[in-house]
Design goal:
Length: 201
């Protein structure tokens, strides 16, 4: 059975500062580094044939820590724009609490959690999901069908979109899906890419 593991990067300095991050290229915080090491310890007994990550440094660094800690020096690693976080447009770099004061919490919640409403000049979850799923179908699905084990390190909204697709979640269900920093979600698939096992580590 093919294995797919989805990992959200460790806490970033922008997460720590409660800032809308999106495509801002910010490093891991010290907590985020520790979370990445913890993920590596959880995955050390797994075998992967290939790994993919976002081109943003917080995801790349998380994967680097995992690979180094687990001793997977020969693991092929690919950096992919399609796995970048949702683009938050005009909100990027702004403090979430201050934005809530300016626009109201209900509007901020709609921008952050809804499926098809985008922040000003940014991406909706629907748009983020579309690019992530297109990449998955083109690059990841063929490897899983060939019984390869795949590791993906990405971002909260990108992974929400992928999980919505893989688990057939509704627009209502995905609103409540939270993925913590350093979160690990495991799938095992049969030859037809039907999920036979799914769990968090």
């Amino acid at each position: 059975m093919a294995l797919l593991v989805l990992v959200r990067h460790g806490e970033s300095t922008a997460n720590l500062a409660n800032v809308f991050t999106g495509w801002l290229d910010v490093p891991l915080s010290s907590t985020g580094e520790a979370e990445a090491y913890a993920v590596a310890d959880k995955l050390k007994d797994f075998h992967f044939d290939v790994a993919y990550t976002s081109t943003l440094i917080r995801a790349k660094r998380t994967l680097d820590i995992i690979v180094e800690r687990a001793g997977w020096a020969d693991l092929p690693v690919h950096h992919v724009d399609a796995l970048k976080e949702r683009m938050y447009g005009n909100l990027q770099g702004l403090n979430k609490a201050e934005v809530a004061i300016k626009y109201g919490q209900a509007q901020v919640d709609e921008w952050r959690r809804s499926y098809d409403v985008a922040p000003p000049n940014g991406e909706s979850l629907k748009q983020t999901r579309a690019r992530a799923v297109e990449f998955f179908e083109a690059e990841i699905a063929p490897q899983l069908r060939a019984d390869k084990n795949v590791l993906i390190v990405s971002h909260g909204n990108t992974l929400r979109g992928l999980r919505m697709y893989l688990e057939h979640l509704s627009e209502t269900q995905v609103v409540g899906l939270e993925i913590v920093t350093g979160g690990v979600h495991v799938y095992r698939f049969d030859a037809h890419l039907a999920i036979v096992e799914m769990y968090d580590l």
